[in-house]
Design goal:
By secondary structure, the chain is α+β, with helices and mostly antiparallel strands. The protein has helices spanning 14-28, 120-137, 148-152, 178-192; strands at 32-37, 42-45, 48-55, 60-68, 71-73, 77-81, 108-115, 141-146. Residues 202-210 have low confidence and may be disordered.
């Protein structure tokens, strides 16, 4: 699906739409595959039900009420890392994982998208969801801030234009293309690890799953 065919109505926020543009570029260049939006809702814990018996004239009736509501969590995006992303978006041997935009703990990446105007409550509760997802399902959910990740890595081409009028967008950070970011990361990796863990050449197609 091309970015031009994706409308904001398909997403719950503009930031999710912008990140989808970001993912589409990664997919088109062979870094990721199988992009999915809100593919699964995870039950974090079941509701707590308190049963009781109501006395009627001719019989007893089983009743109950909810003491505590259950909790579910739905990550925003899921996608698969391909071999080409290693050392570029996720760390490999001799690289500090903190310096990469994604944790890369598994071949499948789950993401929660946040924006500059995301509510304080959402920021406060996300670490709880993140810990519970890891504890219960062994799934690490990466938090992605928009547009901060564009400044840190690359800015998707579609984001350079405004959403509706397609005019040049005012952007207050240094722009870098995906090709530019890849080149920088490749040179950095080659400087510390000239061996087989270096990333694949950017022109090689197709990329293989991790």
């Amino acid at each position: 699906m091309s970015s031009e065919k994706v409308s904001q109505a398909q997403f719950k926020s503009k930031e999710e739409l912008y990140f989808h543009w970001y993912l589409l570029e990664l997919e088109n260049m062979g870094f990721i595959a199988d992009i999915q939006y809100e593919p699964h809702s995870f039950p974090l814990f079941a509701p707590v039900i308190n049963p009781w018996i109501k006395k009627l004239k001719t019989k007893d009736k089983q009743e109950s009420y909810e003491l505590l509501k259950g909790m579910r969590y739905t990550p925003d995006f899921k996608f698969k890392w391909l071999e080409k992303a290693k050392g570029v978006f996720i760390a490999v041997k001799y690289q500090n994982p903190k310096q990469k935009p994604f944790s890369g703990l598994a071949p499948i990446c789950w993401v929660d998208v946040k924006g500059s105007f995301t509510s304080r409550e959402s920021f406060r509760i996300f670490p709880l969801y993140q810990k519970m997802m890891w504890h219960i399902f062994d799934i690490m959910v990466d938090k992605v801030m928009i547009p901060q990740i564009f400044a840190k890595t690359f800015t998707p081409e579609r984001y350079l234009l405004t959403d509706k009028t397609m005019k040049k967008r005012s952007i207050n950070f240094k722009l870098k293309t995906l090709n530019g970011y890849f080149t920088d990361q490749r040179e950095e990796l080659l400087s510390i690890n000239p061996g087989p863990d270096r990333p694949a050449n950017h022109q090689q197609q197709p990329a293989e799953p991790i």
